[in-house]
Amino acid sequence: MAKVGIFFGTDTGNSRKVAKTIHKQLGDELADKPVNISKATVDDLLAYDVLIIGTPTYGDGELPGLTAGTSAESWEEFMPQLAGADFSGKTIALYGLGDQVGYPDNFVDALGMLYDAFADCGASFVGATSTAGYDYNKSKAAMGDEFVGLVLDEDNQKELSEDRLQDWLKQIESSWA
């Protein structure tokens, strides 16, 4: 098994595309192929010491899932499985997709929800990124002047995504060294 597990939630496929790009950048020897969270169990995640976990934010700051209007189960349905799980000793890098123009009051909130849930399970985190360059009002993913992970706005700043992703991967590289 590779050292890094990549898991994502999606409906439209944007988070999956980012996960596939991350996998391609890291390579098969370092990372296993990305897995949609709808097809994963907590034990699947616990099999890795290093995880890269991604999510879009839906509606008014919701995790993707059936009540948020996705066509299939996703993070919303997975989250109850985390109850009682022990992620102590696991390192997690998070990425989130959001729309800062359309949803400035809950920009990438789902990213913050994942952070809180995995932090409650004892995980350690890497990959916080600056909030500079984004124009939003509020975000559950922001802690001071940093987001808890990589934030991509494919709707309004797609041209910045590739560089942001490359810089973030360089930043978290020490996690699996």
Automatic annotation (TrEMBL):
Keyword list, A-Z:
Electron transport, Flavoprotein, FMN, Transport
Q: Which residues form the Flavodoxin-like domain?
A: 4-173
Task: Indicate whether Electron transport appears among the record's keywords.
Answer: yes
| Superkingdom, taxonomy of origin | Bacteria
Q: Pfam families per the record?
A: Flavodoxin_1 (PF00258)
Q: Which cofactor does this sequence's record say it needs?
A: FMN
Q: Which family does it belong to?
A: Belongs to the flavodoxin family.
Q: What does this protein do?
A: Low-potential electron donor to a number of redox enzymes.
* The protein's name in its UniProt record: Flavodoxin
